[in-house]
Design a protein that fits this description.
The complex is a heterodimer. Chain A is an all-alpha fold. Chain A is built from 13 helices and 4 strands. Chain A has a two-stranded antiparallel sheet with strand order 1-2. Chain A has a two-stranded antiparallel sheet with strand order 3-4. In chain A, a hairpin with a 2-residue loop joins strand 3 and strand 4 (about 190). In chain A, helix 1 (about 10-45) runs antiparallel to helix 13 (about 320-340) and helix 4 (about 110-130) runs antiparallel to helix 10 (about 235-260). Chain B has 3 domains: about 1-5 and about 20-100 and about 180-260, 3-Layer(aba) Sandwich (Rossmann fold); about 115-180, no CATH class; about 275-515, Rossmann fold. Chain B has 18 helices and 22 strands. The radius of gyration of chain B is 24 Å and the shape is globular. The chains are: A mainly alpha, B alpha/beta. Chains A and B meet through helix 8 and helix 9 of A and strand 4, helix 10 and strand 18 of B.
C-alpha cells in the first residue's frame, strides 16, 4: 500500500517501501513454512522426546488421515468446487468395509474394494447433482452429506460394526482381515503403513495436479470454466472426475481409520470434513500458491498434527485445541487473501 | 477528507457552475510504478469545466492506469491531483466520486449489478449509503428511480432486469448511475467498444447533451473519428508520458503517428482471390426466425463477416465452432461432413475460435502467459499425459517474440498485460499450427491500432495456409483485414463482395439498412418493453 501522505514520496520512503515489500513477499511465500520449522525446533529443544523418530511417526500418523481426505478436497477445489460430503463418504466406506468383513464374511481385499466403491459412489452422486442437475457445489454436497450419513445409519441399524456384534438378531462371525491389521499397525521399514499410504496418495495427487495435462485442465476449469471450455476442455468431464477422486480418497481415509480401531463406528468420519477443508485452506498460504495445491494441503495437515502433539506435551488442555487450530486457519487465510491482495 | 457537497442534492437539477476556475481537474507530474515497471512517468494535464478532452494512446501506454488513479482505484506513486483548486488524495473510489469525478469503465458489467432491476441499480448508491432509508420497498424504489430518470432526461426500462438488456442499454444504466451523482467530470473509458454503429450514434447524442449541461468529459477511445467528432482537445499518452496535445479541428494523421511513435500504419492490402474451398456451410440459420444462409470459405483468403450487433454473426460462428449445435443445415470441412457436438469436437476436427469476450472467454485471471499459450494444446505439449513444461515455456517465448507482446517474460501473469498485448498473445498462440479453419469473433475490440495492424498482418499471412473467418461489426476493421466480405442483417446475408469494391461508408450503409425497417433501438435485441 502507498503511504498516506500528501507529499510526493521521497526516495527514502520509496526504498523503505521496497524493503517492506520484500519482507511481505517473504512472509507471503515462506511464512507458514518458517513458523512450522520454528515450532518444530522449539518443541524439540524444550521437550527432547518431541524430536525423536518415534514421535515424528506419531505426528505423521496423526496427520495421515486428514491429509488423505484433504488431498481429495484439494482436487475438488481445483475445479472450483467444494466437497462437503467427504466426512460422510468416509463413514459410509468404513461401514461398508467393516460390514462386508464382519457381517458378510468377505476377505480383506474385497472389503477394501467395497469400501472404495462406496466412496466413489458418493462422488458419482455429487457429480450427478452438480454437473447434470446443476445444483451449486456447496448445497449439492451438503445434501449428499445428509443423504449418505442417513443411509449409513439405516444400513447398520444405527449401531457400530465390530467383531461379534449382533445384526438382525443373529450373532456375526466375521472379523477384520489381516490387511486391515497391517494398515492399522503394520509398517514398512519402521514407517507406519498409514504414513506410507498417505505419502503415496500425496505423491500421486501432487504429480497429477502439477505435472500432467489433466491437472492443468483441472486448474483451468477452476480458474475460468468458460475459457476452459473455449480452449477445448470438456469441463463437465473434469468436474465429474474431480468429485470421483474426492469421494475415492475419502474412502481411502475411511479405510485407514477403520483399520486403526478395527471397528466401524457410525459418523466417525464427520469431524474429518472440517479438518480436511482447513488443511486444504491452510495450504493456499504455503509457498504463496494462493490456490488449492497438494503440497500445501500436506503441510496444512502436518502443521496441525505438530501443533497438537507439541502442545499436548506441554499439558496444553485438549479442549483448547480447536481454538489453536482456528488461529492457524485465520493466520493462513490472512496470508493468502489479505496479504496477496495488498501486494502490488 | 470527504466532501459532502454532492450528497444532498438528489432530485435537484444539477447546476455545475463555472466558478471562474480555469481548470476543473488537473494532474501534476503524476507517476505510478508497479514494482519495477513505470506505468506513468510524470503526467501533467488538466481539464477545464465543461470541456471534452480526448485521451488517446496505444495499449500499454498508461491510459488505464491514469484512469484508475483518477477513479481512486490506484494511488499515484508521486504527483498531485488538484480538483477545483484544492489538492485531493483519493484513497478509495468514493473519494473520487465525492470530489465530483465519475468513471464509467470499459467493462460495462462492472458498472451494473446483475440480478437487480434497472431501477434498483439506479438507486443502489442511495441504498448503500450509510444512514440511508432503512425501509425501501419496491414501489418507493421505482418512484425514486423515476425521479432520477426524469432529472437526467433519460428513458430507461426501469423494470427490466439488467442481465436481460443488451450491452448498449447496460451501458446507459452504468452511465445513468454515475450521472445521478452530479459529477463535474465524467470519464468514459472506451464507451463504444461494445456498441454497434447505430448504438454509438445514440451515445454521441447523449454526450452532446452532457456537454450542454456543462459536464466536463474525459473521453478515452482508440477510434480517432470519435475523438475528432466529440472532443475540444486531445492528449496523446505514450510510454507513460504525454507526447502531444491537439486542439479541434483535429489532425487525425498527426494524432495517429503520435500514438504509434515509430510504428508504421497498416498498408493497403491487396484483395486476394483465394485457392480451393475448404469449408462449405449451407442452410444454417443464424436467428430463430431467419431464413437459412449458405456460404463458403477458401484457403488463401480472410473472409470478413460483418453486420450490426444482433445481426446473428455470433450465433452463426457459435454453430460453426461447436459452441452450440447447429439444428439445421449442412457443414462440410475439407471434403468431409462436419457436425461438431461440442467445442472439443470442433477443435479435434480442426476448427478453432478466438472468442469475442476476452476477459470472460479466454482469460484465466491468475495464470501466467505460458500456461495461456498451451492450455488449448494440452495434448501437443504433453507426453503420455505429462506436461513438457520446458517446451511450453519455449513456445510462449516464441509467441511473445513473434507478436511483439510487451511483457517481462512468459512468467508474467496475464492480468499484468494491457488488452492489446493480451490479444496478441491469445491470437498468436493459435497460429503456430495449421488448423483447418480459424475463426475470430471481434478480435480487435478494445485494442490499439498498432496491435490491430500486427494481428491483421499475421492473419493475412496465416490465411495463405489456413482459411480465416473473421467477424467484426466495425466496417473499417473488416475492410482492413478481409479479402471478401459478407454482410449480415437480421440473421440473413444481404450482401457479399470483395473488399476492394467496398469502403467503410458503403459497408455502414448496407449494415444500417435496417434502421429504416426495424423499430429504433429500444428492445432491439430482446423485445422487452
Amino acid at each position: 500500500m502507498i503511504e498516506k501522505t500528501d507529499q510526493p514520496l521521497s526516495k527514502e520512503t520509496t526504498n523503505r517501501l521496497n524493503s517492506v515489500g520484500i519482507i511481505k513477499h517473504f512472509v507471503y511465500r515462506y511464512g507458514l513454512l518458517a513458523v512450522l520449522v520454528g515450532m518444530i525446533v522449539y518443541f524439540s529443544i524444550a521437550q527432547p522426546f518431541f524430536g525423536t523418530f518415534i514421535n515424528s511417526m506419531f505426528i505423521l500418523q496423526a496427520a495421515s488421515v486428514v491429509a488423505v481426505v484433504g488431498l481429495g478436497c484439494t482436487v475438488s477445489m481445483t475445479v472450483g468446487g467444494f466437497d462437503l460430503s467427504v466426512g460422510a463418504a468416509m463413514s459410509l466406506s468404513i461401514m461398508a468395509a467393516a460390514g462386508a468383513m464382519v457381517i458378510g464374511n468377505f476377505g480383506g481385499f474385497s472389503a477394501i474394494l467395497i469400501g472404495m466403491l462406496a466412496g466413489v459412489a458418493v462422488g458419482l452422486l455429487n457429480s450427478f447433482l452438480i454437473v447434470y442437475a446443476r445444483i451449486p457445489d456447496l448445497v449439492a454436497t451438503l445434501s449428499s452429506l445428509f443423504l449418505i450419513n442417513g443411509l449409513t445409519l439405516m444400513g447398520v441399524g444405527g449401531q457400530s460394526v465390530a467383531k461379534g456384534m449382533t445384526f438382525n438378531g443373529e450373532r456375526t462371525t466375521g472379523e477384520f482381515a489381516p490387511i486391515f491389521k497391517w494398515l492399522g499397525s503394520g509398517s514398512v521399514i519402521s514407517i507406519p503403513a498409514s504414513v506410507v499410504v498417505a505419502g503415496s496418495v500425496f505423491i500421486l495427487v501432487h504429480v497429477l495436479l502439477n505435472y500432467t495435462r489433466w491437472g492443468r485442465a483441472f486448474y483451468a476449469v477452476g480458474g475460468n470454466p468458460i475459457a476452459a471450455a473455449a480452449a477445448g476442455i470438456r469441463v463437465a468431464r473434469y468436474r465429474i472426475i474431480a468429485y470421483l477422486i474426492s469421494g475415492g480418497l475419502a474412502s481411502v481415509a475411511g479405510l485407514m481409520l477403520a483399520a486403526r480401531s478395527n471397528r466401524g463406528d457410525v459418523n466417525v468420519g464427520d469431524p474429518f470434513l472440517l479438518q480436511a477443508v482447513s488443511a486444504a485452506l491452510v495450504g493456499y498460504a504455503v509457498l504463496g500458491a494462493n490456490k488449492p495445491n497438494a503440497f500445501g494441503t500436506l503441510v496444512g495437515a502436518i502443521f496441525v498434527a505438530v501443533l497438537i502433539n507439541g502442545l499436548t506435551m506441554f499439558n496444553f488442555p485438549y479442549y483448547a485445541q480447536s481454538f489453536v487450530q482456528g488461529c492457524l486457519l485465520v493466520v493462513a487465510l490472512l496470508m493468502s487473501y489479505t496479504l496477496a491482495q495488498s501486494r502490488g | 477528507m470527504r466532501s459532502t457537497d454532492n450528497e444532498e442534492n438528489l432530485g435537484v437539477q444539477a447546476a455545475p457552475s463555472v466558478l471562474g476556475v480555469s481548470s476543473l481537474v488537473s494532474f501534476d507530474r503524476i507517476t505510478k510504478n508497479f514494482g519495477a515497471t513505470e506505468a506513468l512517468r510524470g503526467v501533467s494535464f488538466s481539464v477545464a469545466a465543461g470541456e471534452t478532452v480526448g485521451l488517446l494512446g496505444a495499449n500499454g501506454a498508461g491510459k488505464s492506469t491514469l484512469i484508475k488513479i483518477l477513479a481512486g482505484i490506484h494511488q499515484p506513486t508521486s504527483g498531485r491531483i488538484v480538483v477545483t483548486g484544492k489538492e485531493r488524495v483519493f484513497f478509495h473510489p468514493d473519494d473520487a466520486r465525492n470530489a465530483g469525478i465519475a468513471t464509467v469503465h470499459q467493462n460495462i458489467d462492472d458498472g451494473v449489478v446483475f440480478g437487480m432491476t434497472v431501477a434498483e441499480n439506479l438507486m443502489l448508491d442511495e441504498i448503500a449509503k450509510p444512514g440511508g432509508t432503512v425501509f425501501l420497498g419496491n414501489r418507493a424504489i421505482m418512484r425514486r428511480a423515476h425521479v432520477v430518470q426524469q432529472r437526467l432526461e433519460l428513458d430507461l426500462p426501469l423494470t427490466a432486469v439488467v442481465e436481460d438488456l443488451p450491452p448498449s442499454r447496460r451501458q446507459e444504466v452504468a452511465i445513468a448511475r454515475e450521472l445521478a451523482k452530479n459529477p463535474k467530470l465524467l470519464i468514459l473509458d472506451e464507451p463504444t467498444s461494445t456498441l454497434s454503429e447505430r448504438e454509438a450514434e445514440k451515445l454521441f447524442d447523449a454526450i452532446a447533451d452532457f456537454k450542454r449541461r456543462g459536464i466536463a468529459i474525459l473521453y478515452i477511445s482508440h477510434r480517432l473519428s470519435e475523438i475528432e467528432r466529440l472532443c475540444d482537445r486531445a492528449v496523446v499518452l505514450r510510454d507513460g508520458k504525454i507526447v502531444s496535445e491537439h486542439t479541434a479541428p483535429m489532425d487525425t494523421k498527426a494524432i495517429a503517428s503520435s500514438i504509434l511513435g515509430e510504428l508504421v500504419l497498416a498498408t493497403e492490402n491487396k484483395t486476394r482471390k483465394g485457392y480451393e474451398t475448404v469449408a462449405t456451410f449451407s442452410g444454417l440459420t443464424a436467428l430463430p426466425e431467419s431464413s437459412p444462409i449458405s456460404f463458403n470459405v477458401r484457403r488463401g483468403e480472410v473472409l470478413g463477416l460483418t453486420g450490426l450487433i444482433g445481426a446473428g454473426k455470433t450465433e452463426l460462428l457459435e454453430q460453426i465452432c461447436g459452441h452450440r449445435t447447429a439444428t439445421v443445415g449442412d457443414m462440410q470441412l475439407a471434403g468431409a461432413d462436419y457436425a461438431p457436438k461440442d467445442i472439443a469436437a470442433a477443435m479435434a476436427a480442426g476448427v478453432v475460435l478466438v472468442p469475442e469476450q476476452r476477459a470472460l472467454q479466454s482469460i484465466f485471471p491468475d495464470e501466467n502467459l505460458w500456461k495461456h499459450c498451451s492450455i488449448s494444446l494440452l495434448s501437443q505439449f504433453s507426453n503420455n499425459g505429462f506436461m513438457r513444461r520446458r517446451r511450453e515455456i519455449a513456445f510462449a517465448a516464441d509467441v511473445i517474440q513473434n507478436f511483439r507482446v510487451v511483457c517481462s517474460g512468459p512468467d508474467d501473469r496475464i492480468g499484468e498485460l494491457s488488452g492489446g498485448n493480451q490479444q496478441k498473445l491469445l491470437v498468436g498462440r493459435w497460429l503456430s499450427r495449421d488448423w483447418k479453419l480459424l475463426v475470430l469473433d471481434e478480435p480487435f475490440r478494445g485494442i490499439d491500432i498498432g496491435a490491430r495492424s500486427l494481428i491483421s498482418r499475421s492473419l493475412r499471412e496465416y490465411s495463405e495456409k489456413v482459411p480465416v473467418l473473421l467477424c467484426s461489426s466495425d466496417p473499417e476493421e473488416v475492410i482492413e483485414v478481409a479479402d471478401r466480405i459478407i454482410i449480415m442483417l437480421e440473421g440473413e446475408i444481404v450482401h457479399e463482395d470483395i473488399s476492394s469494391n467496398l469502403n467503410a461508408e458503403k459497408l455502414a450503409a448496407i449494415m444500417g439498412r435496417s434502421s429504416s425497417l426495424a423499430k429504433p433501438q429500444k428492445g432491439e435485441l430482446l423485445g422487452y418493453d
